[in-house]
Amino acid sequence: MGRVRHIIWDWNGTLLDDTPLTVKAATVSLAAINHPVRLTVDQWREVATRPVTRTYETLCGAPLDEAQFRILNQSWLSTYCSGEAEVGLNPTAVAALELARSAGVTQSILSLYLEPQLRARVTQLGVADHFTDIWGTRDGWKNLQATKADRMLAQLAAVGVSPDEALVIGDMVDDGDEAVSIGASATLVSTGDTSHQRLAASGFPVASTLVAAVRPALLTN
Questions:
Q1: What is the DSSP letter of 12?
Q2: Distance between CA 103 and CA 168 in Å, rounded?
Q3: Tens of pLDDT along 150-181?
Q4: Nearest residue to 73 via CA among 39, 106, 114, 37
């Protein structure tokens, strides 16, 4: 890892401590398409991936069609939004954000969550002033099949940072894969939607807290 000038943060499962709510919403959604599954957080962490369509097909044990995915998406959003107000930041989020800011590293959020809700939650949780940009998605249906690499490049261009000076911090192997695909570095955290074992098997650096994810990057500056 070279000098880090900017950190791109994932939101759900990374800065936001919402994995239990994500699992609840997924369970309700699967029941809505007649695939009831007794899903636990540990089970979710062993199968969750992006695009999330692949996760649902793994849990169902069969391909799903567009109509089913639309029902899944609508049910997931309804369930998630109804419980979102009770979800807080990861316990080490504020300390990690402050650590990066004190070192002069700029930060942004790049999420597949709906942008209006994302911006509202970041503001409600009192951390909006840490970020140069907060990007989500404006199409919940496309979110099921979305990836982040192109938008990572666009966001870095917007802040004037080259990919080799950026660190992506997320909770899924896909975050690391997409970061590497654009020439950025990645550190993955085991407090979200993926088990420590799966993250470690990916070969990316794995941290057990957000502070631990940030600190090594600052040592290179």
A1: B
A2: 17
A3: 899 999 999 999 999 999 999 999 999 999 99
A4: 114
* Residues 54, 209: Cα–Cα separation, whole Å: 27
Residue with tokens 């793994």: 58
DSSP conformation letters of 196-218: HHHHHHTTS-EESSHHHHHHHHH
- Convert the pLDDT of each residue in 59-73 to its tens digit: 999 999 989 999 998
Report how far residue 93's alpha carbon sits from residue 14's, in angstroms, rounded to the nearest whole number.
8
Both tokens of 221, joined, read: 């500056």
DSSP secondary structure code for residue 2 in this structure = -
Domain coordinates of the chain in residue numbers? 6-17+88-219, 19-86
Residues 6+ apart with CB under 8 A from 109: 8, 9, 10, 11, 15, 118, 122, 131, 133, 134, 135, 136
Global pTM reads 0.94
40 touches 195 (CB < 8 A): no
Please name the residue that has the structure tokens 């597949």. 112
**Rounded Cα gap, residues 131 and 180, in angstroms:** 22
| Residue 191, both tokens | 């407090």
For residues 194 and 45, is the Cβ–Cβ distance under 8 A? yes
6-17+88-219: in CATH 3.30.360.10: no
